[in-house]
Amino acid sequence: TSASILTRFRQHVMGASLLSLSPELVCRVIKDLPIEDARNLLSSCRQIQSNGKYAFDEKCFHVLPVKLESQNLRTAKDIIKKEQFRFVRKIFIRLDRVHVPLYLERPQEIARHGLYKILKRGLHPSTKCDTIIIDYGPETEENEYRHHIKAVAWAIKKTSSRQEVNSFKAQIQNITVPSCRGLIKFGRSFLHQVHSIEVKVNSLDQDFDPLYKVLSLATNLRELSIRNDESEFLDSDVISELIGLNSELESLRLSGFEISREQLQDAIFLVEPYIKNINLQRMMFVDGFSSFINYISTLSLDEVFLEDIWERDFEGGECAIQDPMSYL
Question: Could you say which residues of the chain have pLDDT below 70?
Fold first, then answer.
């Protein structure tokens, strides 16, 4: 995701001088960001701007951002007609708030047919585009999602019914548990193509059935991220059941939970033959951090990332683990 790309880039920057970063590295990162995110990154530092501007000069971005309003849809359609579209690998659909509400019939029709034309052309076999990303914007109200999803689901179903389109992987970003009800409307065939899901949970979530349903239907899911953005840690009882729904999971990211080694082991047990990447951020271990380290040392992992890790002792005292990556 664009957020994870930015995070990794900042981690790289923290460990090295900006002057040591080559234009090639900066450009590679920027090309994998939606254009507006790339501009934000460039504006964050003059040195980054100097090195990264070549990505704009080359006009070979890998991600085409699409927003469900008429002007943005027209812009996206213009881009896919141009030569530089041959570099695009992903179509990034942002479910942000739009100026004209999509519950109105005419804007809904424009959004449906406009997105369909973009997907039909973007996924044409003559292109290298093979990924659709659906990002749930943070400012969009829950009832607005219904109308966004109605338009996106219609466009994707119509595109998928055509024979002359590339097979594609789908990535879902920033979805909430209640919003999973709308995602089910995309249908079984679409969810079968979902490769990655990033879900936000909070203390108000009581009914996890919509998320269970989505994960059960996402039979080719390989990457799962579950995060809690609230200040307090959430209990992780539900995590093991969620992870166990996708036995071939390769990448797991958790953030904002308190968890025991036993809970985490139970969660990972069913995916042990396949899991290659574990990313834990802002986590509280309730039975000692070292027991977790002992456990993951028995797994065949390609990558482990640990940040903002805490542990609670038997007397209830809490302390931060200094440099948790050094324990690996």
Answer: 1-26, 28, 30-31, 35, 45-60, 84, 138-144
pLDDT tens for each residue of 245-288:
888 999 999 999 998 888 888 888 888 899 999 999 999 998 87
Beta bridge pairs of residue 254: 226, 280
Please tell me the distance from the alpha carbon of residue 55 to that of residue 57, in angstroms, as a whole number.
Answer: 5
Give residue-wise pLDDT tens across range 35-64: 677 777 777 766 666 666 655 555 567 888
Displacement of CA 7 from its chain's centroid (Å): 12
Among residues 156, 276, 256, 237, the alpha carbon closest in space to that of 198 is found at 256
305 to 11, 283, 302: CA distances (angstroms): 11, 12, 10
- Nearest-angstrom CA–CA distance, 40 and 244: 38
- With a CB cutoff of 8 Å and minimum separation 6, the contacts of 270 are 243, 244, 247
CA distances from 138 to 5, 65, 97, 153, 176 (A): 18, 16, 9, 20, 10
Q: What does the alpha-carbon distance between residue 297 and residue 287 come to, in Å, rounded to a whole number?
A: 17
Strand partners, 253: 225, 279
What pTM does this model have? 0.81
Torsion angle of alpha carbons 249, 254, 257, 258, nearest 10°? 70
Could you tell me if 171 and 133 are in contact, meaning their C-beta atoms sit under 8 angstroms apart? Answer: yes
Cα radius of gyration (the chain): 21
